[in-house]
Amino acid sequence: MNNETEIKLSAEEIEGTEATFSTWLIAVGDAVKEGDPIAELETDKVAMEICAPKTGFIKSLKIEQGSKVEAGQVLGFIADTIATESKAKSSLVISADQLNAKQATNKSVETILPSKSSRENIVDKNSISPAVRRLLSENDIEIENIKGSGKKDRVTRDDVIKFIKLKAEKSVIPQSKPEESVPKEFIIKRETNPKLPTIKPTKSTSLKSHLIPHSNMRKSIASHMVDSLLKTSPHVTSVFEMDMANIIEHRKWHKKEYMELGIKLTFTAYFLLAMAKAVKKVPQVNAKFHNDALEIFSDVNIGVGTALGGADKKDSGLVVPVIQEVQNMSLFQVAKALHKQTEKARTNHLKVSDMKNGTLTISNHGVSGSLFATPIIINQPQVAILGVGKLEKRVVVEEINGKDEMVIRPKCYVSLSIDHRALDAHQTNLFLSEFVSIIESWGM
Questions:
Q1: Choice among 124, 140, 153, 424 that is catalytic
Q2: What is this structure's pTM?
Q3: Catalytic residue status for 365
Q4: What is the mean pLDDT of residues 137-153?
Q5: What is the CATH number of the domain that holds 137?
């Protein structure tokens, strides 16, 4: 009996987000093993692979590139056996149980392929998938340098990730990119080399231009930004100045021991811990606004704005992985969790679950040279977002031995954009004051 198994998209995989089917990595008639990547799709948060639910043969494919996909939808079927033909035209049947033995002995059989018209609708198995293409571009890697492990030596996403990790291990210092960036709760992905249709000049203009179609993710973030700023939260921003001398000194003495344990100690780890401590004084910052109540969360789950992309940092994407229960962590634990999440983001391995349940967000926009930004748009349904600007040496006046003296100090601006429905100026400034005090007195 030839049992057939549905290739389905589970609700857990897309977690209620909208998904678009990207490409098949296999064709009808192909032999697959359980767990093999067979397709790719894109949600408004991540690009992800769909894996074979069992070992067998691809019986049929039910969805085309660019189609919208819903949880529970059947994408295709995998059969236990497949009919083949020998050169003598006698009918044979190969079962899934015989697949490994067949591959080991390298017996030659001709798989019955779909019709020419259906084959034309299937993406070439040797083509580079969108996820692989993005990884190569973001890490400035030539595909010729990577040995593919997929069918017909196709380079898979795992192949690229292994190559990146191998390069990092050979370096004296791991080359992980800083996790800091502007906030958003999902990846914004754009095609590296899209085919750009030319807009034909009309009688009303002589300007030449080309059209870049919006991806699912860009449409989603555009809607989210408009909804947050113009339809949901009245934004107000407060800005403080912060002295970084103490955490610079603390990091200087501890970053080597962290690195020996494989953990990169960044300023962001200090910021997350200080945020969690400041929440104890102003718990209303860690909340969600309802029309009839303010829901205050017990756990401080902080989303970290992370920039993706290669050396040129062009048009590559943003993501906000969440560090869970920061209030229960030490500095080392925060740094370790942060390192893990940002490495997953850098290698395109984040899952939707890695970006869920955030209660507060930080945007370290200073890494791109920004002194301060206002407003930093709140990540709904949260009520506040912290922004940290560029660290620079500034001349300030301090009283030394009863006299005003000009001294040089490492300073940056720190801001809190809040939903004025939930928070007022007093609570906003109290939170920032506590946050700055914790950073400035670190180690004292």
A1: 424
A2: 0.64
A3: no
A4: 75
A5: 4.10.320.10
